[in-house]
Amino acid sequence: MNRYAVATFTAIIACSPSAVFGHGTLPIVVSTQNGTLSVSGGATTVSGYAANVFADPDDQAPLMPLPNNANLLFTTLPSFKLNDLAIDSGLFLEGLPRRQVGGSATPRWLWYWNPATQAVETEPHNPLAEVITNFDGEISISQLATPVSASVQLATPTAVDLAGHADLMRILLSNSPAPTAGVYGFFARVTSPSYGPSAPFFIGMSLGLDNSQVFQQGAEAINVAAGLAADFNFSGGVDGADLLVWQQTLGASGPNLPADANLDGTVSAADLAIWKSQFSQSAPGAPVITIPEPASAILAVLWITAIGNINRLSRNAWRSLRTGFRE
Questions:
Q1: pLDDT exceeds cutoff 50 at 243
Q2: Is residue 184 within a helix (H) or strand (E), and if so which, with residue range?
Q3: Could you tell me the pTM of the whole model?
Q4: Helical H segments across the chain, by residue range
Q5: Pairing of strands 129-132, 138-141
Q6: What order of strands is seen across the sheet that includes strand 69-75?
Q7: Separation CA 256–CA 265 (nearest Å)
């Protein structure tokens, strides 16, 4: 897929009466809270990487052939509902990679769930997905390759954007060769120069499925396969081994760090707080893990390991570590 294809898509959509648009039943609701963006409106989950999963049951949601171009499939859903963003504050969509629990160490960008096997798999045709908006630029992702750019502007926003549902993006999926029927999707968050970024959420795409419940099932299975934010070693649960990963990489900075639970680009005490909140949790259907008991056993292991590295720990992080086990 290239800019010519994107331009062709935009032109066809603009002038083709056969192209169907709709706002859907599960818009991505973007609000602000204490200077941070928040997302709601999807199906909420109790376990898995994202708290919100968008698998819209609307009959306009499934991927359909692009008018006059059978090599591309498209959808305009989900739409967005912007609540209280400031005019001209800027709103962007950022695609997020995530390793699969028990899978390859390579981060996955585009996910696929096979309804025939009821499993998250690698799609053999390796389709390319593209998120485009009315602004210059797009996110182009495949399953395992790191994209050139993972962020695209969604809105300025304007007063019109804030007036109701807004179709801010269009998603294309390559159809040559034809991808296997099932659920496709990617993790993302919204960002803004004026606010802190939102928590991750999942955007699903349905291909060749007639049942919206199967669509939701596949999207939730992908979310579970991505694990928990504090599952730093991608074992399927949060335990003392994840704590050691955090301790060994404390202070590291950069993209896609396993122990960067809050996605701020740095492994810090904030990530430890997320580990503490998810300690002993396991994703449904994930491999069984052993949780060391009692908690003092974990503390003993960590204390021995950390003593040799105490000079690397910040005073606040070390205090947070000790306090976390006392509570």
A1: yes
A2: strand 182-191
A3: 0.85
A4: 3-15, 212-225, 240-249, 269-278, 295-307, 315-326
A5: antiparallel
A6: 64-66, 69-75, 170-174, 129-132, 138-141
A7: 8
Q: Could you list the beta-strand ranges (E) of 25-150.
A: 28-33, 36-40, 43-44, 52-54, 64-66, 69-75, 80-82, 91-96, 111-114, 119-121, 129-132, 138-141
pLDDT, tens digit, 9 for 90 and up, residues 267-276: 999 999 999 9
pLDDT digits (tens, 9 = 90+) for 21-70: 557 789 999 999 999 999 999 998 878 999 999 999 988 789 999 999 99
Name which of 120, 118, 102, 170 is nearest 110 in CA terms: 120
Compute the distance between CA of residue 23 and CA of residue 154 in angstroms, rounded to an integer.
16
Query: Encoding tokens for residue 177?
Result: 């060769």
Task: Measure the CA–CA gap between 281 and 263, rounded to whole angstroms.
Answer: 20
Residue 326's CB: how many other CB atoms inside 10 A? 7
Q: Which residues of 272-290 are buried (b: 16+ CB within 10 A; e: fewer)?
A: bebbbebbeebbeebeebe
Residue 217 has pLDDT above 70, yes or no: yes
- Give the number of residues written for the chain: 327
Q: Give the pLDDT mean for 79-94.
A: 97
Interior angle at CA 140, CA 74 and CA 225, nearest 5: 85
pLDDT of residue 298: 52
Q: Say how many Å lie between the first and final Cα of the chain, rounded.
A: 53
Rounded to whole angstroms, the Cα distance separating 37 from 154 reads 14
Check residue 297 and give its pLDDT.
39
Structure tokens at 140: 């182009």
pLDDT band at 104 (very low <50, low <70, confident <90, very high): confident
Give, in degrees to the nearest 5, the angle at Cα 180 between 46 and 173. 80
